[in-house]
Amino acid sequence: MRILIKFITNLGSLLLICAMIWLGWKYLGPVKPAVSELRRQVAIKNITQVIEDIRNNRKEIKTARLLHLANDPSDFITTLLRQRLELAGTLDLGDQTIQSKVKTLLNLPITAAADITQALEMTKHSKAQAMLFGTINNFEETRSGAILNMELTLARLPAGEILWSQEYTWKEAAGILPKMEMPETISGDHPFLSRLFCWVLLVLLLCSASIPLLMPCLPPCCLPAARQAGRYCWSLPWLLRRHFSIMSGL
Questions:
Q1: Which residue segment(s) compose the domain that 146 sits in?
Q2: Which of 97, 130, 213, 245 lies 20 to 30 angstroms, CA to CA, from 163?
């Protein structure tokens, strides 16, 4: 029993620290720039043309490594391109690297390749048949509308032979646009992790509430550890009250 109480105490302290670090990073850490509705529309409306061009010029290529597009701080174009390629089955892009997933989770900038030399360096250990990389030259909204200009290149691996390269320029006039399907972008907000933290903290809180009831049944050697566990666990309601908005999602 003494070992169990000590374990609950240490686990509660560790989870409390992890929860505070996670929530602190969530509210005070880096934030990806937002993309306006008009800029989203100009990208979603014309991305089908890119998919068709890749399909017509890929030759025998079936697998490819998609590198993060240069000058895409919001990750919107890169994520949209990956989703549409996977949904259409045009190329098997495989899974993202662990490094990219961690940077996405923490809203950190992802390394991009602006030219074929950098792209070859980033894919030298890849087993894919080709790599797809590019640069966003302009992606902004003005008084007259939104504009998207980008370059994409599909090159064979490991030689770096360029199979296809194309520059696109699309414009969308400002006005009332039809509602279009939006991609599920990856953000730094993860309700599952927040709910998991709250669930564990609630369990520890219930355990702390039961400790005083169990103390008469505990041997004398376990009483100091039980009192310490109670003090630690009863400090958890402050965190739960502070983040009531998270608990509302339980």
A1: 37-173
A2: 97
Residue 82: alpha-carbon gap to chain centroid: 14
- Summarize pLDDT for 6-28 with one digit per residue, the tens: 676 677 667 767 777 777 787 78
Report how far residue 64's alpha carbon sits from residue 70's, in angstroms, rounded to the nearest whole number: 18
HSE-up (13 A, CA, CB side) for residue 210:
8
- Top-confidence residue, 177 or 69: 69
| pLDDT score recorded for residue 68 | 95
- Residue 121 domain flag: yes
pLDDT at 52: 96
**What pLDDT shows up at residue 197?**
61
Assess if residue 219 is contained within a domain.
yes
Q: What is the pTM of this model?
A: 0.68
Other beta carbons within 10 Å of 28: 8
- Whether 44 and 161 map to the same domain: the answer is yes
CB 131 within 8 A of CB 67: yes
Angle CA(66)–CA(40)–CA(74) in degrees, nearest 5? 55
Token pair listed for 59: 């030759």
The dihedrals phi and psi of 235, each to the nearest 5 degrees, come to -80, -5
Residue 123 and residue 239: Cα distance in Å, rounded?
44
Task: Give per-residue pLDDT as tens, 72-114.
Answer: 999 999 999 999 999 999 999 988 888 888 888 888 999 999 8
Asked whether residue 151 falls in the same domain as residue 94, the answer is yes
Mean pLDDT of 148-156: 96
Q: What is the CATH number of the domain that holds 87?
A: 3.40.50.10610
